[in-house]
Predict the structure.
Amino acid sequence: MTILRKGTWFIGRYTGESEIARLKAGAVPPPQGRSYAPDKLVDVLHIKLEVSFDLAGKAVRGTATHTVSPLTDGLDHLVLDCVELTVEGVTDGKGRVLPFDWDGEKLTIAFPKPLGAGHPIEVSVRYHGTPRSGLYFTGPSEAYPETALQVWSQGQDEDSRHWFPCFDYPNEKATSETLVTVPESWTVVGNGALVGVTSDRRRGTKTWHHRMEVPHVSYLLSIACGEFAKIEDSWRGTPVQYFVKPGQEKQARRAFSLTPDMIEHFSETFGYAYPYPKYSQVVVEDFIFGGMENISATTLIDRCLMDERASLDYEPQDLISHELAHQWFGDLVTCKDWSHAWLNEGFATFCEVVYREHWRGGEDAGYHRLQQMQSYFERDRSERRPIVTKAYTLPMELFDQHIYEKGGLVLHMLRHVLGDGPFWASVRAYLHEYAGRNVQTEDLIGVINRVTGKNLEWFFDQWVFGAGFPEFEVSYAWDEKHKTATLTVDQKQKVDERTPVFRTPVTVRFHGRRPVEEGIVVSQAHQLFSFRLEEKPAFASFDPGFHILKKLTFKKPPEMLKTQIVKDPDWFGRVEAAQALCREGSREALDAVGKAL
Ligand SMILES: [Zn+2]
């Protein structure tokens, strides 16, 4: 039945209202509790959005013109997401009126003549509305008289449909242009190149025209409008711009001055030069998130700006590097559906660490990584789930520490398992192969396989499609007669259908006059590893650098810990020794910690 109904989408002709009801009846509801990307009728090639505002009424009026190309022959209708907007009329590229129906969520437009596959058509929707999400109007109030009049958008995850009709799901990419009419003293920050600004003196307005030539998903289409001061910077000749409220220029310079260095570092490290004609960062009033990586035009919360005193306690660099990294991971290459959103968020979170490494060095980056790990453990205590899952109702449910922190830490492990050279070669190939396209996790696995020859399905199975993390209990013993060190490694996590016994390569290091490093592969719940050494080691490390996402209890003699806390060149090792001594709790142990500090 369903197949037949779907079939009628493509062979039927528009005959009236009841026909539209029949067309919509063809939609197949997903199984309970699981979410999938929607079907597509067309390839959206281009979105042209012309809007103006009634600031007092917090209303938008506009025309959204989609250029679409049918995917199959005989297409007789188009469906766009459109919520709480009043549609005034729909026309095709020649100005002919097209019948439409709107059920409060979906706008179904009928074509009088069925279209052939690959024959593009323009569809213009005139509409107006007072959006409750997607587009936000700010201004002074009694409680906050300083708040500036602004209009800004926030599309992710599925809120663009609240301010313009569109195919509002990440599995569709189009080029775009916006023509936004605002009061003449205002600036509009949009996506891509500024084509031009035209004035209407009589009305006291200006229309700002932006154009983005790199195809992108609809949630990345953005505008930020208001009275802004503009600070100009540049990277390899590409404009880098910071927009803030007039008077905040100094704070803006303090917050954003590292941006060109970040663009350079990411361009070099990713092997893919920043791909858009400009990079803007705009700070808006009352932003609902920390930042949003709108394509080539990141929107940020005003808390990233601070005076000199506050900047001693907080630095916005992680926020700035995170949103910038999204310009590649999320914007250029985008998750095909929300279940793979970690390919956006995990990469951006990982890149916070990548930039810190370059900016502040390995220890600082490591400390940031440790904080991310703690944050993930906290989340895991209340909910354990795989990073990739279709078991969700609202996409926002997925946007937690599983896809951010754990996603980032998994990529760090991937880098550690592959080694820097093969890892970055894979990242480079991934970006070049999927630029302007959508991805799912299997695509990343495939690229790694092609570039390095390594089949890492086992790695992704446990870390991405499985849940949890290993909880290692390691104990150390020394046999003087045979000059042998033995490590007993137990995995103590509760194993169930989602949480496996983990398989992971681990570096083991024995410190002494001549440090010895060995690689082992842990893959069972209980394992013994023996090492013939020339001398009794001063102390031993399990995973120096703390690259593996794990909890570790390493039982070592107190003498070893006391040496490690001062002698371990690895910062993580010193922290681990301090924690172990504190747990031990004897007077002597605490003295050793005190002395080391
Ligand atoms: Zn993000």
